Amino acid sequence: MSIPYSVLDLAPIPEGLNAADALRNTRDLAQHAETLGYKRYWLAEHHNMIGIASSATSVLIGYVAAATQHIRVGSGGVMLPNHAPLVIAEQFGTLATLYPDRIDLGLGRAPGTDPGTARALRRDLQSSSDQFPQDVLELMHYLGPEEPGQRVRAIPGMGTQVPVWILGSSLYGAQLAAHFGLPYAFASHFAPADLMDALTVYRQTFKPSAYLDKPYAMVLVNVVAAETDEEARYLYTSLQQQFVRMRRNTRGKLSPPIDDINTFWTDSERVMVERMLACSVYGSPETLETGLRSILAQTSPQELMITGQIFDHQARLRSFEIAAQVMQKIT
Q1: How far apart are the first and last CA of the chain?
Q2: Is 147 strand, coil or helix?
Q3: How many of the other CB atoms lie within 10 Å of CB of 249?
Q4: Beta-bridge partners for 164
Q5: How far, in Å, CA of 300 to CA of 324, rounded?
């Protein structure tokens, strides 16, 4: 059975470059991914992060959709507690009007930032997060057909039926996606611990809906591919450094790779990073094939989404090219 493969992009800003460079790189990668057979190109909402340029997610989705022809473009995801559902319905309804049958709306309930920035985004973060299920329903209502007597409408948005996904890194999202009968994407690229349990919960408790008649699960994986294992291992150190800096609270732009990661982290940091990045494959095409076959066999996803934080843009393009070639071979 053929497994679709897709891209998750955070629009990383490498050291020595700026946000404009990162956004141009995002457009270039999306165009490249389209030629390689990737099904979707999703962008993730983050805020107040020096090394990530995807904060205005819906604006960036429009930028990518305008530069491509047929690849689906969407959010992976919009952090709904940061926004009023009507605003997101209007934004994605506008995108769907401009680019029909090409827009996806992935929703998460994390703030995608630090607590102080979260308060600046929507002030009452706790109650907003608690309202996530109700906000999802309200948002889907605005994107659905107009109902008799409906006073508040998303224009554009009403009747666009933009496909909604639930994103998660715990059992909560799996339960919610199953209850609403929506497709589900698990953030295994940074939080793999509950992956297998979440997939089981989602599949066993799924309720068919007007949106989906059977479970549709997408698994996310970090991929760094190069011509040789040694080169890929070198490129992968940028991502490893990024996660160490998150723990040290010294976040910055994406660092260039280094020859020996063991000179950078402590033993406890290594254990933490290896645990968080357990759903990662890096290496030559042959190594990549072995690793991706293993992940597909363990998780049986309906779709695989690939992300890759790679410092050099040309190396990043080549990595996604190798990944596409491997996916075409094994599925």
Answers
A1: 6
A2: coil
A3: 7
A4: 105
A5: 18
User: Could you tell me the CA-to-CA distances from 6 to 11, 43, 48, 62, 91 in Å, in that order?
Assistant: 15, 11, 26, 18, 23
Q: How many CB atoms lie within 10 A of CB 162?
A: 23
**pTM for the complete prediction?**
0.95
Unique residue bearing structure tokens 């909604």: 164
- Which residue reads 């049986």 in tokens? 300
The per-residue pLDDT for range 213-249, each reduced to its tens digit, is 999 999 999 999 999 999 999 999 999 999 999 999 9
Instruction: List CB contacts of 192: < 8 A, sequence separation 6 or more.
Output: 275, 276, 278, 279
DSSP letter for each residue of 91-138: HHHHHHHHSTT-EEEEEE-S-SS-HHHHHHHHS-HHHHHHTHHHHHHH
Identify each DSSP E strand in 44-109 by its residue range.
Answer: 72-79, 103-108
pLDDT digits (tens, 9 = 90+) for 116-160: 877 787 656 565 668 999 999 999 999 999 999 999 999 999 999
